[in-house]
């Protein structure tokens, strides 16, 4: 069981307690525990079952909740949650999953209108009962209606890649542990590294005699709530998180063909099938066939080669021109995680991060980075920002630490707000002392396209701004980009040699398509995690995934360079 799942169940308890007017301290305790678990770098379930680790040592986890988590790891259910679900209407949990609704609103519906299920809510919306509650204006009502419609059409939301990653890893490890499997891999949008995943598609090869046992075991994974379909070579299950998982078992001779077919995308596969037809070949999940003779299928390379194509990295398989490049042997050499030498955006407890400067440094060194930038917030970020004096004090501390380290450098930096009026949040003399400055927008997101574009252009004009961070402001999946004339911004950034960031947190910003467009304008990029704790330093792989989907190579990305070349590549190096 992965941390995200434990955190989700703890949050359910907090929400249900809040709705049933439980002790507010207990509500807060469960929320804090959920956050601690979600942010923890190692799998809590393994620590608990290993027996050597006392989870009450973690911040926010007392004896009572520790017992609950231990019971959850041992039995698969959280006793407190079971108890609440048994005493409250079961439909409340469905209501909490509707986007736009949290515990406060669900509690209000429950108490004032006896709305206890999605069906009740629909009814209340139709009768105008929700509109009669204070604070529920037309915009909010529309949002709730959309949320209700979503639950009806899909019965599940698309899951962010970050979260799907944890489920994929857990299921693959579980299936491997059962034995009898030759090869196993995850296909579908997950393998293409799309930002959200509709469902997981797992492909397994094994001896035909073992297929039934593998499929049986799959249906018994601890988080399975429903086995939706089960046959001789495939099964579909639904997990308690709502995620659907498809499993296909194929013979080893077809593994490449099955991986190719189930990786998609559908648009990519349709184009491949046309190429096969033009060559009088047939392409399906079992292989490439001439008449009834299989001429390729063991590996994906074989399948693509039989069609006269170079092997195409999964991230590019969206039918956006990759097939023509593969035919001409002109596919780009996509950047890899191993090429990344530094992480250029992260926060410490000096602003809104959870870990200390020393902890972030230690964790980044363990990951193999050669340099990092500490980018705590500027004053505008209320609560979290540092004053110029505090920033200078932090930089002094960084100078001292750098003197004690060999082969690793902490860059003095700041994540500086671009204010609502387009001015920068810090004076030039301070910015000039930094090693690296990333400028971002956090406020005034409702301004016009013109205003927001002008704000970014103003920051790009400053010779002390090395990069624009999370340039569109989107957060996957719920917050779209603010309005922006992106072409204008990309062209200006390319001209000024200002970098654009690809942020690997759940922002995934720039998005892949915009990064590809920016490359077309000659922009260079910086990849970062925007980590707010040590675990999130692992998000670099998601930034790399976006970069690969955008077709970027190592040469497009400045933090693939060794430190001296990285520094020389910053626009500020030309001022000195
Ligand atoms: P998702 O799950 O919505 O994030 O997206 P995918 O791409 O994982 O789609 P999914 O799970 O429906 O199917 C996995 C792959 O299987 C898909 O990318 C291509 C292949 N596939 C599924 N159905 C069809 C089909 O009807 N025709 C073709 N050519 N390929 C299909
Ligand atoms: Ca899928
Ligand atoms: Ca599927
Ligand atoms: Zn930020």
Poorly predicted sequence stretches spanning 5 or more consecutive residues: none
Which structural class do the helices and strands define? Answer: alpha/beta
Distance between the termini: 53 Å
Number of DSSP E strands: 17
The top-level CATH class of the largest domain is Alpha Beta
Helix content: 40-55%
The rough form would be described as globular
Q: What's the pLDDT, averaged over the residues? A: 94
Strand neighbour order, sheet with most strands: 11-12-13-14-15-16-17
Number of helical regions: 24
State the major sheet. Answer: 7 strands, parallel
How large, in whole angstroms, is the Cα Rg? 26 Å
User: Compounds present?
Assistant: 2'-deoxyguanosine-5'-triphosphate, calcium ion, zinc ion
By CATH, the architecture of the largest domain is named: Alpha-Beta Barrel
CATH superfamily of the largest domain: Metal-dependent hydrolases
The CATH topology of the largest domain is TIM Barrel
Strand content: 5-15%
Number of domains: 4
Oligomer state of the chains in this structure? single chain
Show the helix and strand layout.
Elements: H1 3-19, H2 24-39, H3 44-50, H4 63-75, H5 79-87, H6 91-96, H7 103-113, H8 118-126, H9 138-154, E1 159-160, H10 161-177, E2 183-186, H11 188-191, E3 196-197, E4 199-205, H12 211-219, E5 224-230, E6 234-239, E7 244-250, H13 255-263, H14 266-278, E8 282-284, E9 287-290, E10 293-296, H15 300-306, H16 322-327, E11 342-343, H17 357-366, E12 371-374, H18 388-404, E13 409-417, H19 428-433, E14 436-440, H20 449-461, E15 467-468, H21 486-496, E16 499-503, H22 512-520, E17 525-528, H23 540-549, H24 563-569
Parallel strand pairs: 4-7, 11-12, 12-13, 13-14, 14-15, 15-16, 16-17
Antiparallel strand pairs: 1-3, 2-4, 5-6, 6-7, 8-9, 9-10
Zinc ion binds at residues 415, 440, 442, 469-470.
């Amino acid at each position: 069981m992965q941390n995200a799942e434990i955190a989700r169940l703890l949050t359910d308890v907090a929400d249900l307690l809040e709705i049933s007017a439980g002790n507010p301290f207990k509500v807060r305790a469960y929320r804090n525990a959920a956050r601690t678990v979600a942010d923890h770098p190692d799998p809590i379930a393994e620590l608990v079952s290993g027996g050597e680790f006392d989870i009450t040592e973690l911040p926010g986890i007392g004896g009572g909740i520790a017992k609950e988590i231990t019971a959850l790891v041992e039995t698969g259910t959280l006793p407190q949650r079971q108890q609440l679900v048994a005493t409250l209407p079961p439909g409340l949990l469905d209501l909490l999953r509707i986007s736009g609704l949290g515990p406060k609103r669900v509690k209000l519906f429950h108490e004032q209108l006896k709305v206890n299920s999605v069906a009740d809510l629909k009814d209340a919306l139709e009768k105008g009962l929700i509109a009669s509650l204070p604070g529920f204006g037309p915009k909010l009502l529309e949002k709730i209606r959309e949320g209700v419609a979503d639950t009806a059409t899909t019965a599940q939301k698309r899951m962010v890649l970050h979260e799907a990653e944890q489920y994929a890893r857990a299921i693959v490890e579980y299936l491997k542990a059962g034995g009898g499997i030759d090869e196993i891999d995850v296909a579908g949008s997950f393998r293409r590294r799309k930002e959200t995943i509709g469902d997981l598609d797992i492909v397994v090869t094994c001896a035909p005699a073992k297929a039934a046992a593998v499929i049986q075991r799959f249906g018994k994974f601890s988080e399975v709530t429903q086995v939706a379909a089960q046959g001789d070579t495939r099964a579909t299950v639904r997990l308690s998180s709502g995620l659907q998982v498809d499993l296909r078992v194929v013979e080893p001779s077809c593994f490449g063909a099955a991986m190719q077919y189930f990786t998609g995308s559908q648009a990519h596969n349709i184009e491949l099938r046309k190429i096969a037809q033009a060559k009088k070949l047939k392409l399906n999940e079992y292989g490439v066939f001439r008449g009834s003779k299989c001429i390729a299928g063991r590996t994906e390379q074989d399948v693509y080669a039989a069609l006269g194509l170079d092997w195409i990295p999964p991230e590019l398989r969206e039918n956006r021109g990759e097939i023509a490049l593969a035919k001409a042997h002109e596919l780009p050499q996509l950047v890899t995680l191993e090429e990344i030498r530094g992480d250029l955006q992260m926060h410490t407890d000096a602003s809104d991060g959870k870990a200390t400067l020393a902890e972030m440094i230690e964790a980044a060194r363990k990951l193999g980075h050669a340099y990092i930038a500490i980018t705590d917030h500027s004053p505008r970020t209320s609560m979290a920002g540092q004053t110029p004096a505090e920033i200078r004090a932090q930089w002094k501390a960084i100078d001292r630490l750098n003197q004690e380290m060999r082969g690793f450098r902490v860059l003095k930096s700041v994540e500086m707000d671009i204010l609502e009026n387009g001015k920068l949040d810090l004076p030039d003399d301070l910015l000039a002392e930094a090693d690296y400055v990333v400028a971002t927008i956090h406020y005034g997101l409702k301004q016009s396209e013109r205003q927001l574009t002008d704000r970014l252009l103003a920051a790009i004009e400053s010779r002390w701004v090395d990069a624009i961070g999370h340039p569109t402001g989107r957060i996957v999946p719920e917050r779209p980009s603010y309005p922006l004339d992106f072409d204008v911004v990309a062209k200006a950034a390319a001209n000024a040699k200002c970098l654009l960031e690809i942020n690997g947190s759940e922002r995934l910003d720039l998005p892949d398509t915009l990064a590809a467009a920016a490359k077309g304008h000659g922009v260079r990029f910086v990849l970062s995690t925007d980590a707010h704790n040590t675990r999130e330093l692992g998000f670099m792989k998601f930034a790399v995934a976006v970069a690969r989907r955008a077709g970027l190579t190592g040469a497009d990305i400045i933090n693939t360079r060794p430190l001296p070349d990285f520094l020389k590549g910053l626009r500020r190096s030309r001022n000195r």
